[in-house]
Amino acid sequence: MKKENNMVKKLKYSSLAIASAALSITACKLPAVVEKTENNNLPASYGNSQDTLSAAKIKWKEYFTDPYLNALIDTALVNNQELNITLQEIEMSRNEVRARKGEYLPFVGVRAGVGAEKAAKYTLQGALEEKVPIVDDKENPKPVGDFLLGVYANWEIDIWNKLHNATKASYNHFLASMEGRNFVITNLIAEVANSYYELLALDNQLDIVNKNIEILTSALEIVKMQKEATRVTELAVKKFEAEVLKTKSMQYDIKQQVTETENKINFLLGRYPQPIARNDQSFNSLVPPAIHAGMPAQLLANRPDIRQAELEITAAKLDIKVAKAQFYPSLGISAAFGYQAFNPSYFLHTPESILYSLAGDLMAPLVNRNAIKATYMNASAKQIQAVYNYQKTVINAYVEVANQLSKIGNLEKSYDLKSQQVDALTQSIDISNALFKSARADYMEVLMTQRDALESKFELVETKKQQMNAMVNVYRALGGGW
Prior knowledge:
The protein folds into three domains: about 1-30; about 35-105 and about 160-330 and about 370-475, Outer membrane efflux proteins (OEP) (Up-down Bundle), CATH 1.20.1600.10; about 105-155 and about 330-365, Outer membrane efflux proteins (OEP), CATH 2.20.200.10. Helices cover about 65% and strands about 10% of the residues. The chain has helices at about 1-25, 60-65, 65-80, 80-105, 125-130, 160-230, 235-270, 300, 305-325, 370-435, 445-475, and strands at about 105-115, 145-155, 330-340, 355-365. A four-stranded antiparallel β-sheet has the order 1-2-3-4, with no helix packed on it. The longest helix has about 70 residues, at about 370-435. It comes from Filimonas lacunae.
C-alpha cells in the first residue's frame, strides 16, 4: 500500500514537471501583440452651447406628438422585417453564450451498445481464445457477444480561464447585438417620421398646385375676354393655356411621389400598399420644438452604435486572451462507469461485469503552431480594428449632431425669409391681375408673377419639410428613440 502511494506521488510530480516544462516552452515563444486603447475624449460642447439637458432622454411618444405618426411608428416596431431579422441575430448571440457556458462544464453522456466479435484464429487474441475457455470447459463461442451500458464524462479543466474568457467574450457580443437592435430601432423611428413629414409636404404641394390651377384658369378666361376685345393677341391666350396645362401636369408628378412615399412607409411597416392615415391640414402649423443637445460626452451613453462599438472592444480584448491560452497546456479528465459482458445473463453481475475508468491527460502544442499563432495575431488585429471603429463611430456621432444643430438654426432663418417672400409674391398676383385688367401690365408679367409665386410656395413647403426632418435627425443623432 505504501509502495502504491509512492507511485501515485511520483506520477503526480512527473505530471507537474511535464506541465511546467511545456508551459515554459510555449510561453517563451509567444508572438508579440500590441493592444490599442480607445480615446473617448470629446469636445466640451457643440459650439458655444453649455446645455446639459439632452433631448435623447425624451421618449419618442413624447417627442412626436402627432397621433397618426405615433400609430405608424408603433406598427413599424412590431412588423418591420429588418428589425425582426435583427431580433433573430440577438437570439443567435444568446444561444452562443449558452453554448460557451456549457463548454467549461463536464460533458456527461450515456452509451449503450450491442455487438459481436470473432477474432482470427492465427492472431494473438484468436490463439488465446482457442486455449483459454470463457464458459466452463466448453469450446469458446464464435463469435463472442458484447453488451454494454455505461455513463461517460469528459471535462476540460479551465486552468487558464480560456473557456470562461470565451464565455465573457460571447456575452459582450450578445450585449453588442442588443445595442445593435437599439440602433436599428432609433433609425427606424427616424425613417418613418421623415417619410411621414415628406408625405405631408407632398399633400401641401398638391393643394398649392390645385389652387394655382384655379387662379390660372380664371386668368385664362380674362385673357380670352381681352382677346375678344382686341386688347391682346392669340399669343397671350396660348401662353396662358400652356401654363394651365403645365401646372395640371404637375399634379400627376406629385401624385406619383405621394404613392411612392406611402408605399415606402408601408414597407417600413412590413405591410402591402394601402392608404396612409394622416392629418395633412396640420403641416403649415407645425413648429419644430426647441432642441436640447446636451453635452457631447452624453453621446457615449445615449448613442446605441457607440455603446455597441465599445462592447465589441471589450469582446475583442477577451478574444485575445482566449487565443493566447491556446499556447498553454490543456488538462482534461475523462471517466466512465457501467456494465459490459459477452453474455446478457452475466450483464448485471456485480462486481464481475462492472466497467469503470478514470484518466487525465495534459496536452500542449510544441511543433507547428502556425494555426494558433495566426488566430492569436488575428485576434490582436481585430481588437485594433474595433478601437478604430469605435473612434470613427464617436467622431461620426459628434459630426452628425453638429451638422443638424447648424441646419436647424439656418433653416429657421431661411423659413422666415421665404415666408416673407411668399407673402410679397401672393400680393403681387392681385396687383398684376388688376394692372393687366386695366391694360397697365403685360400678360407676361402676370404669367411670371404666377410662376414666381408657385415656386416660392413650393420652396416654403420644402423648407418646412427640411425643418421637420432636421428635428427628427437631431433626435436620432443624439441617440433618442430606443
